[in-house]
Amino acid sequence: MSTTRFFEQVNLNFDRASKFLKYEDGLLEQIKACNTVCHFTFPLKKDDGTIDTIHAWRAQHSQHKLPTKGGIRYSMMVNEDEVKALAALMTYKCAVVDVPFGGAKGGVRIERKNYSEAELQRITRRFTFELASKNFIGPEIDVPAPDYGTGEQEMAWIVDTFLAIDPSLHAEGCVTGKPIGLGGIRGRTEATGRGVFFGIREACDNAEDMKALGLEKGIAGKSVIVQGFGNVGYHSVKYLMEADARITGICEYDGAIYNEKGIDVEAVFKHMQEHGTITSFPDATFVEDSKSVMEYDCDILVPAALESQITEQNASRIKARIIGEGANGPTTQEAHDIIKERGALVIPDNYLNAGGVTVSYFEWLKNLSHVRFGRMERRFEESSARRMLEAMQFMTNRSLSDDEIARISQGASERDIVDSGLEDTMISAYNQINELRKEHNTDLRTAAFISAIKKVAVTYERMGIFP
Ligand code: NAD
Predict the structure, then answer these.
(1) Are 320 and 344 in contact (CB under 8 A)?
(2) Is there an atom of ligand 1 within 6 Å of 127 CB?
(3) Whether 234 contacts 269, CB under 8 Å
(4) Which DSSP letter does residue 226 get?
(5) Are strands 300-303 and 36-45 parallel, antiparallel or unpaired?
């Protein structure tokens, strides 16, 4: 399936869910529509003096909550349809996990490896300037974040450019996923993958659901294959491995590696940093046809690269019992139905990869409040816990070592608070959508859309537009 149909795919899933609800067609059409999309071009003077014309987009799907929020992608596949689809997914995702943002997405159509660091910096700064001049960025308007092909460095250039244009009180909140020194938050880089882990763990902890899939309860011992070893893919399997899952396959754009006994994810990460590829990793078998490894036997498959990777062409050959969608839109609706027919469980993107936007929300709150989470209460919590322990030691006539006291009484750091907020969000949202799944006798994706549509519709109803 080509990306030209991606927005339509999102809408097909929306339509399927809306059949379970009783809303006016006009309201449903408004929720589905992408409110604003902007395409612009600008020149880039390359290091060799030649000039490239750069195409860029920003879509704001829904302003039912402000600001709108969504990542910025650098990829040759970026086009208007893709940003509209991804912006729509952001609206639904934020609603599913109760993050009060409308959905947005942006992209620049470039093959990033063809540009030098200096060229990427010029592209990013000019892109930010274009967004600002069109009122498409700002802490109260629209807040970008990292996505495919971008990371902390691009977010640093964005905030620096924006601050030069608008040095106002909350300006740091114009973008999330920033480095700590520029207003970032501890735990954002790994947040999406950590959320993927929490979501899969929650699904696997449901004994009844696992029994229906013919699997044991829990993550330990389950075999996992991942497609895409970037930010989301690497962190997802890192946490799954730490919970004693066996990572048997890693698929990248230039080939895959496979080892039935399990692959040390950290060693692969180090290898990739040193050699620029996973394909020469020594402790696994190299497979040239990367996509074929997604069809190998495993308990959990985590597509974490791009959209439309599981289609009606390969869906019937996918053997995983659980598909955990780290990427946005990796499974088409036709493929989803084939997998569902086989009795496997799809944990959908509009829930499972919401960890990134959840922690982005925490970062944005930190930028608006100008105070690090935990700063005010950490010491107080520690001394209260110490006083409690002293009283308990006195009453029980038992003494604890200094190490034990320090460990038990430790106050929560920013990282602890972020992690706890993320875990709580992913657990509550999973249980909400799993309940809806059972109530309507449907699948998790449809249930997530039902949850999202209801929450967005409530906002419109409160606005009085659709009484
Ligand atoms: P990334 O650029 O860090 O990593 C993507 C990886 O996929 C790269 O290593 C790339 O080489 C690999 N890849 C590309 N094409 C491939 C192919 N055909 N087969 C196998 N591997 C391939 O990007 P990311 O931030 O990890 O994003 C991945 C997906 O997750 C995207 O769909 C993105 O929209 C989604 N997502 C990202 C975030 C985030 O916080 N970064 C949040 C939510 C969703």
Answers:
(1) yes
(2) no
(3) yes
(4) E
(5) unpaired
CB of 360 closer than 6 angstroms to any ligand 1 atom: no
Residues 205 and 215 sit within 8 Å (Cβ to Cβ): no
What span, in angstroms and rounded, lies between the C-alpha atoms of 260 and 404?
41
Helix, strand or coil for residue 345? strand
What is the arithmetic mean of pLDDT over 191-197? Answer: 98
Q: Are 86 and 73 in contact (CB under 8 A)?
A: yes
Q: Which of 1, 133, 17, 14 is nearest to 439 (CA)?
A: 17
Which ligand 1 atom sits closest to the C-alpha of 305?
Answer: 7
pLDDT of residue 1: 43
- The rounded distance, in Å, linking the Cα atoms of 15 and 21 is 10
- How many Cα neighbours within 13 Å face the side chain of 454? 17
C-alpha distances (whole Å) from 388 to each of 282, 382, 384, 391 are 53, 10, 6, 5
Residue written as tokens 């107080």? 380
Which pLDDT tens digit goes with each residue over 138-180? 999 999 999 999 999 999 999 999 999 999 999 999 999 999 9
The preferred substitution site among 77, 105, 192 for testing ligand 1, maximizing ligand atoms within 8 Å of CB, is: 192
The answer, as to whether pTM is greater than 0.90, is: yes
In the chain, the domains with their CATH numbers are: 34-182 (3.40.50.10860), 185-377+412-444 (3.40.50.720)
Establish whether residue 268 lines the binding site of ligand 1, counting it when its CB lies within 6 angstroms of any ligand atom.
Answer: no
Give CA 115 to chain center in angstroms. 26
β-strand 255-258 against 285-287: which pairing, if any?
A: antiparallel
As a whole number, mean pLDDT of residues 255-278 equals 98
Spatial separation of the C-alpha atoms in residues 190 and 152, rounded to whole Å: 11
**3-state helix vs strand vs coil in the chain, percent to 5:** 50, 15, 35
Q: What is the pLDDT of residue 394?
A: 92
Q: Which atom of ligand 1 is nearest to the CA of 309?
A: 18
6-18 and 333-341 helices, crossing angle to 10°: 50
Round to whole Å and give the CA distance between 275 and 300: 28
Length of the chain: 467
The amino acid sitting at 123 is I
Residue 2 has pLDDT above 70, yes or no: no
* Residue 57, strand partner residues: 39, 107
Dihedral (CA of 332, 336, 339, 342) sign: negative
Contact predicate 450/92, CB 8 Å: no
Q: How many CA atoms lie within 13 A of 361 on its CB side?
A: 24
**Hey, what are 50's tokens?**
């030649």
CA-CA-CA-CA dihedral for 225, 228, 233, 237, to nearest 10:
30
